[in-house]
Design a protein that fits this description.
The chain is 51% helix and 15% strand. The chain is an alpha/beta fold and 692 residues long. The chain has 4 domains: 182 residues, no CATH class; 166 residues, no CATH class; 233 residues, no CATH class; 86 residues, no CATH class. Strands 9, 10, 11, 12, 13, 14, 15 and 16 form an 8-stranded mixed sheet that branches. It is globular, with a radius of gyration of 27 Å. The two termini are 44 Å apart.
Length: 692
């Protein structure tokens, strides 16, 4: 069995499980799996599923998902080539052209008022066509991505298709090979080979900024603005290191200062702009006629600082038609061996951005909060359900692919044991955790903005909480989060399988988050602390009375979110506004009385929280005591390593001297000094565990 055939078998299992868990068709499950990977890789921003198609007639069309980046004027449209056969098939040029043409047909149709007006307001086609029609003047670039579980005959780079109504169209493909490659990577860097000579017309002169003996090569160059726009126009956010990509997608508007410089003083751009910091796994070098070195190609380019500059330059070209002929952008390019990318690139990204607006929350994927949640998930078993001898565990996936890795190794019996300990329906990804917590924080409008924007909102909130009250993010908090996941996923399945939803299969995700947020808001308004998540954790089930409440409430909420204002007919966009939540939260929906035993008493909750915080602080101190004991045997070596790196403070030096003598009773300030030193050593790539 080939590797790709095995990957197809695994994908088919994933699609069936996703469909079963969500109560959706396999086609939609396939879209969701690929859309998540496309967002991770930078092929698209958060895509909203909407399956619209017409097979007959002179202009057949099809689209399966869409998203619009208002700030940059980029429309994303996805189309699925889902094949339900068990054997691996190929994807050829004729099939690719057919999919591309169908999406283009739909886009062109959507620019016509007669087509949009003829669609039913509740149809999937209308949910895609209406925002295209209303935003047609703002659309400056169309990116079409094809999702396929077939194998591309020959790998194709993103390509610029013919313009439509004066709008550039970029077409890219995410086939089974690329999907598997991205899924298997611990980072989101995918194979990108950029032919600079083809795009620029000639290699770009550079200056080597490192000696030939160094492991990592460094180059300085001034890349012409039109070349940078051409590269970014083809590859888009795939070029951005993930933290920067997430930050731009979630928060940043186009920089007006950059646009002004390009328009009024393009010759000063090099002097005024800080430029880009970028990494690559390899570069192609040539010598120019005058003997200067020049870069002709770049492999796996990643922009770790300067994403806003890059996006704004393309925006200037697309939107205002500004000439980039006199614009040159300074670039610091580090060539990092592929074996060191995972370790080095995040550090370059962090250090390159320390003086910019990207905060710790924007680097949240490496925040210690995640490490703590991961530790809880590997240690805390849920109470056994009826008939079971032991409880299974929820699996918090701090980094993409952790669960898959856990299933990939070991004997068949070890894999079965892993699945029993960590069932697949109890996996929580970072972006899903954000969705659950923000829903029950009564911000369904934020959740409706989709994964990345919701995640960044959550990141900021938790980063503040971690800084001011780390002990509140304790085991109790983790158990409640798992209960939120259980309740949210049950509600999602219930809506998907209900008869009322079957008549209009749209806006499921918005219905779920608004339903649960409304219920939580009602409970809090009644003077309670919220739902009793600890009870749900203990039973690992949704109480029948709560099920009944949600089954009655959800269809009422679904009807209400469709009552959009006259000036905002698109339900999906309306749900993203705070005004929508304000209107829904004030509705007096007809539901049975909420029994007290389903809710948490405020005083009891405060008491439990005080106890949990105290336990968390105690656990932290116990863990430090154990760590200090393990440090005794190599305290002197750690001290010398820290001193050599310029990280040793007088207090940490005194503490390590004590440990070297076998004295483990340290003062509070000495214990804190050790904590800080260990953190700084880890940031420098010298984890204490690896010393000695």
């Amino acid at each position: 069995m080939t590797d790709l055939q095995a990957a197809l078998d695994e994908l088919r299992d994933d699609v069936m499980l996703e469909a079963e868990a969500g109560g959706i068709f396999q086609q939609e499950a396939f879209f969701q799996l690929y859309a998540e990977v496309a967002s991770d890789s930078g092929d698209a921003i958060d895509l909203e599923h909407a399956h619209a198609h017409r097979d007959g007639g002179s202009r057949p069309y099809r689209v399966d998902g869409h998203a619009f980046d208002h700030d940059r004027g980029t429309l994303y449209m996805a189309v699925c080539d889902f094949r339900d056969g068990a054997e691996l098939e190929t994807l050829n040029a004729a099939q690719i052209d057919s999919f591309l043409r169908r999406v283009v047909n739909f886009f062109e149709n959507s620019l016509r008022p007669d087509f949009v007006n003829a669609l039913e307001d509740s149809s999937a086609a209308f949910s895609v066509a209406y925002p295209i029609f209303t935003n047609r003047a703002s659309i400056k670039r169309l990116r079409i991505v094809l999702f396929s579980n077939a194998r591309l005959v020959a790998r194709r780079a993103p390509q610029l298709a013919d313009e439509i109504a004066g709008i550039p169209v970029v077409f890219s493909i995410l086939d089974l090979a690329r999907y598997t490659e991205i899924q298997g990577a611990s980072s989101t860097t995918a194979a990108i080979e950029i032919d600079i000579t083809a795009i620029a017309g000639a290699p770009i002169p550079c200056l080597r900024a490192s000696s030939s003996s160094e492991e990592h090569e460094s180059y300085l160059l001034a890349i012409p603005g039109d070349v940078l726009a051409g590269v970014y126009g083809l590859y888009g956010a795939r070029l951005l290191e993930q933290n920067v990509r997430t930050y731009l997608q979630a928060k940043t508007k186009v920089n007006r200062g950059i646009l002004t410089t390009i328009k009024d003083a393009p010759q000063m751009f090099f002097a005024f702009n800080n430029g880009l910091t970028a990494t690559a796994s390899a570069v192609g070098l040539e010598k120019l006629d005058d003997g200067r070195p020049a870069i002709s190609s770049i492999s796996n380019l990643q922009i770790v600082n300067g994403g806003q500059t890059t996006a704004s330059i393309l925006y200037a070209k697309d939107v205002s038609g500004s000439s980039l002929e006199r614009v040159h952008v300074p670039v610091k390019l580090s060539v990092v061996p592929e074996s060191a990318i995972e370790q080095i690139v995040p550090k370059i990204s962090r250090f390159a951005n320390t003086q910019n607006r990207i905060s710790e929350a924007d680097f949240f994927s490496s925040h210690p909060f995640h490490l703590q949640m991961e530790r809880f998930s590997r240690r805390l078993a849920a109470p056994p359900q009826a008939g079971a001898l032991s409880g299974s565990k929820w699996f918090y996936e701090r980094a993409r692919g952790q669960y898959r890795d856990g299933m990939a190794y070991g004997t068949a019996s070890e894999k079965r044991k892993f699945q029993l300990e960590f069932p697949k329906d109890k996996v929580i990804e970072k972006t899903d955790l954000a969705k659950y917590v923000v829903t029950f924080d009564c911000r369904p409008d934020v959740v409706s903005r989709h994964a990345q924007k919701c995640f960044m909102y959550f990141a900021e909130q938790v980063a503040k909480q971690w800084k001011t009250s780390q002990s509140s993010l304790n085991e109790n908090w983790y158990r409640s989060a798992c209960a939120m996941a259980l309740l949210f996923n049950w509600t999602d399945r219930m809506v998907a399988r209900s008869e009322w939803y079957a008549t209009d299969r749209a806006y499921k995700s918005q219905t779920v988050t608004y339903t649960l947020a409304w219920l939580t808001n009602r409970i809090i308004s009644d003077g309670k602390a919220g739902l009793d998540f600890q009870h749900i954790w203990k039973t690992q089930d949704v109480p029948s009375e709560l099920q009944n409440l949600i089954e009655i409430l959800a269809p009422q909420v679904a009807r209400s979110i469709r009552e959009t204002p006259e000036n905002l007919m698109n339900v999906g966009e309306y749900c993203k506004t705070q005004g929508c939540w304000e209107q829904i939260s004030k509705r007096d929906f007809e539901i049975p009385d909420i029994p007290d035993h389903l809710t948490a008493d405020p005083e009891d909750s405060k008491s439990e929280e005080r106890s949990a915080r105290s336990t968390a602080r105690l656990d932290s101190e116990i863990e430090l005591d154990i760590f200090l004991l393990s440090l005794v045997s190599k305290a002197d070596l750690v001290r010398r390593t820290a001193d050599r790196r310029g990280l040793l403070s007088p207090r940490s030096s005194d503490a390590l001297e004590k440990l070297h003598r076998g004295v483990t009773t340290l003062t509070r300030s000495e214990r804190n000094a050790i904590r800080l030193l260990v953190k700084r050593l880890a940031e420098e790539g010298a984890s204490v565990e690896t010393i000695g």
